[in-house]
Amino acid sequence: MAHLITALILIPLAGACAMTVAPRNYARAIALAFNGLAAIFAWQLWRSFDSTTAGLQLVERHNWIPAIGAEYLVGIDGLSLLLVILTSIVFPFALLAQRGDRGFCALMLLMQSALYGTFMAQNFVLWFLFYEMSLVPAFLLIKIWGGENRDRAATKFFLYTFLGSVAMLLSFLGIYFAKGTFDFAALANLGKTGLLDGNFAWLAFAGIFLGLAVKVPLFPFHTWLPDAYETAPVGVSMVLTGVLSKMGVYGFVRLLLPLFPNEIRILAPWLLGLAVCSIVFAALAAWAQSDLKRMVAYLSVNHLGYCMLGLFAVTGTAVRPLPEMQAALSGVFMQIFNHGITAAALFYFVGLLEQRRGLRGINDFGGLMQRTPLLCGWMSVAMFSSLGLPGLNGFVGEFLIFKGSFAMAASFTAVAALGLLVTAIVFMRAMQALFSGPLAESCRTFSDLRANEKWTVIPVVLLMFAVGIVPQFIFNIFNATVVQMARLFV
Amino acid sequence: MISWIVTNVWLIPAVPLVVSLIVLSLAGSRRVAAAGFAVTGQVIALVLASAAFLPTLQTPGYRAIHNFIWFTFGDQVLRLGWVLDPLAAAMLIMITLVGLCIFVFSIGYMAGDKNFTRFFAYLSFFSAAMLGLIIANSLLLLFICWELVGLASYLLIGFWIERPSAAAAAKKAFITTRIGDIGFFIGILWLYGSSGTLLFYDNGHGCIERTALLAIGGSATFVALLIFCGAVGKSGQFPLHVWLPDAMEGPTPVSALIHAATMVAAGVFLVARVYPLFSFGAIKGTTPSLIVVVSIGVITALIASLIALAQFDIKRILAYSTISQLGLMMVSLGVGGVAAGIMHLIAHGFFKALLFLGAGSVIHGTHEEQDIRRMGGLRWVMPVTFLTYAVGMMNLSGVPFFFSGGWTKEEILHATEHWQFSRLPHYLMLAGVVLTALYMTRQIIYVFFGNSRAGSEHAHESPRVMTTPLMVLAICSILLAVLLTPAWPWLRTYLEGEAAHADPALLLQPMLLLSLLLVAIGILIGIFIYRFASEKDPLEKAQPALFRFFENKMGLDDLYEHTIVAFSRTAARVFDWMDRYFWDGLVRTFAGLGQLFGIFTSSFDQHGINAGVDETTIGARGLGRVISRWHSGQIQTYLGAVAIGMLALLLLYAWLT
Amino acid sequence: MTPTLQLFLIISAALFSIGLLAALSRRHAIFILIGIEMMLAAANLNFVAFWRYGPHPEVPTGVMVAIFSIAIAAAEAAVGLALVIAIYRHYRTTDVDKLDRLRG
To answer: Which of A198, A295, A442, B123 is the most exposed place for a label (fewest CB within 10 A)?
Structure first.
């Protein structure tokens, strides 16, 4: 099928337009229908994708603004496809979690379209367009439908990420003036021999690094995140952590690492240090939170820190055997997918608790296991998945990241392992406070999972088990890409 | 049949796993079905384990492996596998048999519990994970099962979830063992990185086979020590033993199965499994890593015995005794007596499960009484429990001839005696034998002898469903002794991969007499001290300060609470604070600077530019007003102006010329 | 006393000044008009005088211009008078002090 990618980008956009004429009561159902359609197309994309060959596939290329080297160039490799699949899973999940009116659904669909575009665009101008396009709906969703402090959090989120984007745009303009192309593949080829030289290279590196580090977010650029995730409505938090944060990681893989290998090698100890700080500090900060949403938000920083650790180890260290690089890269990709699913699920459960109680402080609950065993059981699965229990999805990615990173940057990885411990403490504390002990007076009237909630949760949790036990079907998506990338980064 | 089971060893853990899922999905009211499924699953596992046992008997040193690819990443593969060798087969038999007894016992013990089905689901899940751990032929698969037994332990310790103390104990157990697991995890990474595989046996390329060991070289010590961290956490070795006594908050069958017979022994099993890593490059029969193992084992064994002397909770005494016995096994492994350590592990599995179930029977019979000071005189009321408990006590104390524990303990002492590095562990272990006999005598006197006290007045014997497993376990632990005698050391040779041969002359050895003597001393001292046991412990009367010190677990829990835990909690708070105020403060400072600049420019706009424009317009308007006053509309004024202008021009002309 | 250019110029200047004075000082519009006519006459006198004492007195250009000028002055006077009458009709006055609608 030709133009599959374009169709996939346009479907949610069409859905967003359809929201203007949708009947008020059926807005969410129609949005979900468009999600379903997008999922079918994503499935079709997966089927048309040849997982044995590396490089871009299903490329569509049209002239757009030749004067500035802007092309409509879309295509997928394993990583893109993985993220497209993730997006297709998380969005329906988020819409099921959150009741919203037409405007809400329209903005969500708009964001979905922007995300598809971001993950499949292969030309900087087009990519940047989609990248920024996702920012506006996110801002509005927080600003309009957010909870307490939403104005402040939304503005902070917007300014923070926008400032990063501006820095990145400037860097890219500089690169364009020096090299005359915006094509990712062409830039990556140039990057192998050193894209730019001297101070200019450092300046360009700093701009792009800033833009992406804010998006991921990497310590210490993460302070917008707890506020934004805490304030955003549950569905939006799910998308923010499940997919939007992956844009940063994706940007690192696609842009920064191929373009600036020398700079990264020189800065490697510092970058690895930042990744380890993300892991350990965020986990410790999560321990100290009493707001469940904020706690999960900090753990998001922690989990993405593992991705950053793997990526910096792959590109920055002195001795890099190919198998270890492949391990770390596979781990990072796996972690991208797993974190998307697990963190979204955790936010979903926190949302369920908040819906029932009206509050979400860790001490506002108690003894839930006696009243709502199903809710507690399924939520525990998500929690154990997040803390990396073997048999669930989180372990596979983390193990590979640690395996690869340990061979290349042993001391940093050893310190990062502390993060695993602290994560366990965080969840143990939460489980003890929420599930055990005598049933709190305020929780006496809680209902257990309702049928619709059950049917939302079960597929996602089953997916966690599937990825944890037989992860091969996910690895198949990106194995060829991993091999190619490892060779590129050598 | 025999070859079939070799390739399908995975069925042994798979059966309980499936059973656990089935039971979990049952409604809470379907108790009979739940118990039926669980017990059936365990029976099938036992049958399969016995079937798997048979091929290992055929040839000494039998080992069958089956490896498979778990997944491919990049162009690399990650392989897992399972192994069937004497070590695994013996452990499988022990675990399924003890497990079956405990499952049956639980039917009676948990009869009144409202979450009966969930209990059996968890128990089956534990059984599956534990069996998986045993047959794993990959350190990674072992680690996976290792974590899963940890999860099962967490769920079962906190089974009575409405009790805050149970939830706290579960949390403590999970986190404490995870501290060790982090070291274990790093050890796995290191091993994987340096040897390129995590399979134990892979036709000469496994990570504990010669080629890989040569590749690992000097770092084997570090790898071994890191892996040992995991064992320390799981097997309750000093300094991570603190979770095990608290784990007694769980139901007693759980304590028997997980925290006495099987899971806590996994650490010992792990060390035995990767023993080549520990012993690689041994000089004079020892390596730095083995010395650490021995030291930790000795410290643990002695500390735990001493603490056990000053406890009053019947289960806690047994918990400390478990810790001490595990320390003993570690010592045995450390000094090179791998087979002796595993033999003790297996024997311990039987008799410690017996003791715990006995304790459970006592608790059940005395209506949830756990304080030994409030018991007494139960030997007439609970005769079966008493007899089987006495068998367990004899085993634990190390009385040879009829009791398997005696033979295995003697084997261990034998091994320590022959350690070339130092004789100190040997002497300390001899002291440990006395202590063990002493605290067990104390317990048995308090519980079963003397007059009945407050808690045991309305005691009754437990139902048949609980006493039968006790008898089975007691008989097993006695029968096992046959396989352990030095005269026909079948189990040892089986584990070491040799053919057994009988030599009755070896039956009586000096070591045997020595250990018999020591046990007798211990028991006699115990009887002497505790013959008039009352609510106040005789030792407490004699040495109150020292007794209090041991009663408070040597202050270790408090020490951890006030140092490590307090420190990390503070660290968490500090980082939260840093995040809110320092990092975010930096951001806000930048934002503030931007805002300040904005205020500055806006005020410049307002007061500089804007005011300037305003002033100009005001001035222009005033000027216009003044000039417009000249515009009187009076035609004659205009004419006058013209005239004056003309006159002025004339004058100018005149002045110029 | 022979008439010289200077004499004519003095007379013309005097005539002009008288006309100006009339135009500036009188209140009535008609008088102002008359003053203006006087100033025009002074200009015509100047013209003729400069012609007569100029380099080409034989060509009658000066007289021609003066006659044209007088004709235009007549027409102007007619327009001016008509305006005065129109103003009178409108404002019922011819007092220029009161006619200040153009005041700024």
So the answer is: A198
